[in-house]
Amino acid sequence: MQVPEYVKKAATQFCRQIANIVPLGKLANLSSYEVLPVQGPAFILKELPITALANNLEGSWQWLCNTETVEAPVIWTVLGAVPDLYQITRCDAPLATEIASAYARFFRTANQQPMVDRQPGLPDLHNLNAGKKGLETAIEQAPIKKLLKATHVIASLRERVPYLALYNRILSDKKTFPLRWMHGSAGPGNTLFDAETHKAWSVLGIEQVKPGLFFSDLGELLRTVASTEDEDSRVWENVGISQPVYDSLLTTYLQLVKNSLTEEEIKLLPCAGLLVTYLQALLFTTDYLRNAPRTTFNEEDLNLHRAFNQLILLEKMEAVQPFSPDWK
Length: 328
Hints:
The protein has 11 helices and 9 strands. By secondary structure, it is α+β, with helices and mostly antiparallel strands. It folds into 2 domains: 5-83; 93-327, Alpha-Beta Complex (Aminoglycoside 3'-phosphotransferase, Chain: A, domain 2). The chain has a 4-stranded antiparallel sheet, covered by helices on one side. The protein has a 3-stranded antiparallel sheet with strand order 5-7-8. Strands 6-9 form a two-stranded antiparallel sheet.
């Protein structure tokens, strides 16, 4: 079976030197191909029916549009390791600038299209009300032993009423704070870098694009990229915020998306990390009380330790970015 020229073009955007491309067939009228590089493991090139992102004006290779399929435009993504690209887990300020740029470009591209162009993705993306309600329900049903262990975390989370008040103010004004297409899982692990230039090349996971609020992706970046330890760390004294990384993320993202946001969204964007980190602490605490692991590891106190980690991170983030009275 002959490989179309537009497929070859897409494959060479993902990998510089290709030995062969093997068609794998179609599923729901969308094609997949196995790409065999000259060096390195093979990877899968796959079409995605995300028409809201097909009109890409920013030249991101991962979103390369199959313009020859006029009736149903698609974009490309890859599955598996690509020889000329790499991922990171921790970064310095220059790489943080690259990561923020990648997600800002994604935001601008995704939101060129109206929300009605796609069916909504997973519900409750960064929904603080659902998170708080889930915690209170779990507290009512949890055994006393677990409640005693989690007393400090629960009390600290309950004290942070202003975060919920701010979130509900945002929800109450849909004109000022409209739903927008968000990545939903922004972070260093979902960012690809060019092995030669070390520039952010693209973001992964775009098939899971979700409707959400303006703070979601930046909040996840500040929570994951600016943290000095990952969420599984129990070296409590090392959990904190890298100020240079935090500043690079916030400044770069804001600069690139501000023309796509309302004035109030711009004003409140600095609260993004606080809201998302607070929510993550809620979720980990709830999972601990419910015995609902977010991992395959079966460890009784794992999610309690994660909740404590995120609470410490939130406290350190509050020192960097105090809750502003102007946000109320």
